[in-house]
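Appendix B. Raw example, untouched.
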Amino acid sequence: MGFVAEDLSTTYPERYQWCSAYLNGLFDLKTNPERYADPEILGEHLKLMVNTGARDERAKTALPNSSYHCRRVTADVAASRVPGYLKGSVPARPLSDASHAVLVNDLATLVLSAVDRVDFAVLAYRNERN
């Protein structure tokens, strides 16, 4: 397999763009952010992100089951400032462009860092065993 640590970082820019595009596509994230303060609603979107474009393809091949990734991402987001920010938003008032950009960046970065930590461990372990 020949895995080295830098391998996951080579696909980071494309995966970050995909995550950002997905989050920007959630129009009500900007217009109705308090809706996403519900862990179930946000969790469903995080799960979709993990199962579609947030993971490196080599990692998907090595570990196709992403249930642990979803739990890890959800836990990391719950421990971050994002839920407090969503709960603290003014009801019925959309986020400013700058606030929305910060929220999208925070969520995309949290998702990718949680996914990459798990995938790196799996790929490194498999490389050691081979």
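End of appendix B.
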